[in-house]
TrEMBL record:
It is a multi-pass membrane protein. InterPro entries: AAA+_ATPase, ABC1_TM_dom, ABC1_TM_sf, ABC_transporter-like_ATP-bd, ABC_transporter-like_CS, P-loop_NTPase, Type_1_exporter. The keyword Metal-binding does not apply. Residues 171-453 form the ABC transmembrane type-1 domain. Belongs to the ABC transporter superfamily. ABCB family. MHC peptide exporter (TC 3.A.1.209) subfamily. GO terms for cellular component: endomembrane system; membrane. Gene3D superfamilies: ABC transporter type 1, transmembrane domain (1.20.1560.10), P-loop containing nucleotide triphosphate hydrolases (3.40.50.300). SUPFAM superfamilies: ABC transporter transmembrane region, P-loop containing nucleoside triphosphate hydrolases. One of its GO terms (molecular function) is ATP hydrolysis activity. The chain crosses the membrane at residues 34-57, 69-90, 110-132, 166-187, 207-232. This is Transporter 1, ATP-binding cassette, sub-family B (MDR/TAP).
Length: 738
């Protein structure tokens, strides 16, 4: 077992010893006359020793950040001296009585002491329980203490950043909250005055005044609450919209490798579900929290004016509530993060199934996919159950502690009235305040964990917002004229970023695309042809060597400029569920009609588009599902040509076309457009028309030259041509077989 995992046990053992030593000092004859002093001195020594112990341990306190750890030490060491001092101020049992509460004889004699001591011991027990839970969970996990994440801005500060533009609105909301809370919180005070009048029957105008003020306050308070709610909801909705927009933008700006390792369903879930949950909870629960905090302040003010002693007693129960709420809040925050991940996984299964519904149906795997989805939902259900248990326990403990507080205050208030320290009206007002106080504490306790859960959900969105895309900074070049001369110079590339030779997809690749000429890139499957295209599009960065465009490094060009000058048509081209016209002009604005027709004619697409029910306004369907594969490719070629690119990349762009259409398209491309073309094709009769041919094999350039030159060499290229004609013959033979 590691020393770090032994630390929690060591810590607890040491703490118990320290408590016993102070206990001994307490009961010793020498210290009895100065019990409070001894208690304070003992606690300071204990706190110092624990702090030194915590500092000397390399991994810090188990499952706590350093500041949380020191807070816990402070609570653990000083809550008892503080309680004892407060009790002494209230004229209640002595420190010795509290220490000796477990002795039944004393408990039987001092009933009140038991009630008050319960407050102390329950707090002590919860503090100890909290430390134990954290220690045990650290032991079970056998993992080193979780260090707070370095370099990330805390989610609350991030949320504050989004509220900054609306600060004046929040200031208005706060003002209205304060006005409304004052109105509400002044009510019990006037009720007390009415009660005094009922009991004494003196000064009849006091009754009328109190009733009038109460009526006015009710109206004013309700009105300001209405305006405040409206303003708050509208503002939080705007913030929510901004966050969602920014998260979407941040996702789009990530490099391609980011999308390779994440599934679309998960990303959609993080953009929608996480931000939705965050916004829902923040708009509701934050508003509750704001209301109750403001009420709290007025409550304390009014309670203080009634009886400071009873207020002190009420306050003594608060640490228990705080510990419970904090524990529940931490728990709910971590549960919420797990829930977001689990929901994202379930969403991913649904998104994947619906987007590949044809494959699912053709393999009759509807039941299999349902089972997979059910599996993910089961996981979500398990986490939901955990969340419900945490919520129920939190509710139960908050109700219990507020009930205990009420009983204590009633008992102590009764004593004060019989002693004549406070009037009956003051007691009535105080009890009413106490009820409000309990409900405020209860609400804060239930809202706080939910706010923490919202913060947990927000963290997922902030993770994406904070992520710096792993692409070099945008370049500065955007020359007026671009010749289109491309050079791959000793390029080596691996998708996994591992630098050993086995992981390299391209190894020391060098070739040139001459301006205005057609260069074909050929090779067997997985030889690295499409990877060259991805590097040209700057989706990935080579680990060694470089790509030059007109003699300048590719990364020095502005991204927007580069993608205007380079147009790519790939085999698996994607159309959007929009009219064909919009698919052709995708990413361009105000394109004249004749430009669209010119591009479509060059791509041999104009005739079939005109025959569609709505011509250029016909919808292409989801992923281009309402047009055939060949039609889809021709629309994609038109989309590339309308940009009048300097470099046109055709990556198996005509693979779905019949020979006649392929001939027409290639003839138009080769003869009518004047740009650099990089052609990747399996059809060797098309490849042989290229001005220059580069043969790739196992990520290296095997040979290059014109068709005639390569055929005379009789090496890799000849082999490729022969293989194509061989498969053709075999097909013929198969067809002739009886
Ligand atoms: N996104 C990716 N992540 C990891 N590896 C990849 C990725 N894309 C391609 N590869 C790997 O890179 C190698 C080259 O793939 P590439 O698509 O460049 O080959 P190709 O010559 O275009 O093949 P084909 O003729 O079959 O289309 C393959 O082994 C492939 O598995």
């Amino acid at each position: 077992m590691q020393t770090t995992s032994l630390f929690p046990l060591f810590f607890l053992g040491f703490d118990v010893c320290a408590v016993q030593v102070i206990h001994l000092a307490q009961v010793s004859l020498l210290s009895t006359p100065h019990s409070l002093v001894t208690l304070w001195v003992g606690s300071v020594i204990r706190a110092c020793l624990l702090a030194v112990l915590a500092l000397r341990c390399p991994s810090g306190l188990p499952r706590m950040s350093r500041s949380e750890g020191f807070q816990s030490i402070l609570v653990l060491c000083f809550h008892f001296p503080v309680y004892a001092t407060l009790l002494a101020a209230l004229g209640q049992p002595t420190v010795e009585q509290l220490w000796g509460w477990h002795r039944w004889d004393r408990v039987c004699h001092v009933y009140a002491t038991t009630l008050l001591a319960w407050l102390y011991w329950s707090h002590y027990a919860s503090a100890l329980l909290l430390s134990c839970c954290k220690a045990i969970s650290a032991l079970l996990r056998r993992a080193p203490a979780e260090e707070p994440k370095a370099g990330t801005t805390p989610p609350l500060r991030r949320l504050y950043h989004f509220t900054r533009p609306y600060l004046w609105r929040f200031a208005g909301v706060l003002l209205l909250v304060i006005l409304s809370s004052y109105g509400e919180m002044a009510m019990p005070h006037y009720t007390g005055r009415v009660a005094d009048w009922i009991m004494n029957k003196e000064a009849p105008e006091a009754f009328t005044n109190a009733i009038t003020v109460m009526a006015l306050l009710t109206i004013a308070s309700a009105l300001s609450e209405l305006v405040c709610d409206l303003m708050y909801t509208i503002t939080t909705t705007r913030i929510y919209r901004t966050v969602q927009e920014l998260v979407f933008e941040a996702v789009l700006k990530q490099e391609l490798a980011f999308f390779d390792s994440r599934k679309p369903g998960e990303l959609v879930s993080h953009i929608t579900t996480s931000t939705n949950r965050m916004s829902e909870i923040l708009s509701q629960e934050m508003s509750y929290l704001m209301w109750y905090v403001s009420r709290f302040v007025f409550l304390i003010f009014f309670m203080l004016t009634q009886s400071w002693k009873m207020l002190l007693l009420t306050w003594m129960g608060l640490p228990i509530c705080w510990v419970v709420a904090k524990f529940a809040g931490n728990f709910q925050e971590s549960i919420s993060k797990r829930l977001q991940d689990s929901l994202a996984e379930a969403n991913q299964v649904a998104t994947e199934t619906f987007s590949h519904i044809k494959t699912v149906k053709s393999f009759a795997n509807e039941d299999g996919e349902t089972e997979r989805y059910r599996g993910r939902l089961d996981n979500t259900y398990r986490i939901n159950k955990l969340e419900s248990v945490a919520y129920a326990v939190n509710m139960w403990s908050s109700t219990l502690s507020s009930l205990a507080m009420k009983v204590c205050v009633l008992y102590y208030g009764g004593i004060l009235v019989t002693r004549g320290d406070v009037s009956s009206g003051d007691l009535v007002s105080f009890i009413l305040y106490e009820l409000q106080f309990s409900s405020a504490v209860e609400s804060v306790m239930t809202s706080y964990p939910k706010v923490r859960a919202a913060i947990g959900a927000a963290e997922k969105s902030f993770e994406i917002l904070d992520r710096k895309p792993n692409v070099p900074a945008d370049g500065h070049l955007c020359p007026q004229h671009l010749k289109g001369c491309v050079e791959f110079r000793n390029v080596s590339f691996s998708y996994s970023e591992k630098t050993d030779q086995n992981h390299f997809v391209l190894k020391d690749v060098s070739f040139k695309l001459n301006p205005g000429r057609i260069t074909a890139l050929v090779g067997r499957n997985s030889s690295g042809k499409s990877t060259c295209v991805k590097l040209l599009e700057r989706f990935y960065q080579p680990q060694a060597g470089g790509i030059l465009l007109d003699g300048q490094p590719l990364q020095d060009y502005k991204d927007q400029y580069l993608h205007q000058k380079i147009a790519v048509v790939s085999q698996d081209c994607v159309l959007f569920a929009r009219p064909i016209r919009e698919n052709i002009t995708y990413g361009l604005e105000d394109v004249p009609e004749d430009e669209i027709y010119r591009a479509a004619k060059l791509a041999s697409a104009h005739d079939f588009i005109m025959k569609l029910p709505n011509g250029y306004d016909t919808d292409a369907g989801e992923g281009g599902g309402q047009v055939s594969g060949g039609q889809k490719q021709r629309i994609a070629i038109a989309r590339a040509l309308i940009r009048r690119p300097t470099l046109l990349i055709l990556d198996c762009a005509t693979s779905d076309l019949d020979s006649h259409t392929e001939y027409l398209v290639n003839q138009a491309l080769f003869e009518q457009i004047n740009c650099t073309v990089l052609l990747i094709s399996r059809n060797m009769s098309v490849v042989e028309k290229a001005d220059h041919i580069v043969v790739l094999g196992d990520g290296t350039v095997k040979e290059e030259g014109s068709h005639a030159e390569l055929m005379t060499k009789g090496s890799f290229y000849t082999e490729l041509v022969k293989t194509e004609s061989k498969s053709f013959h075999r097909q013929e033979k198969d067809e002739n077989d009886p």
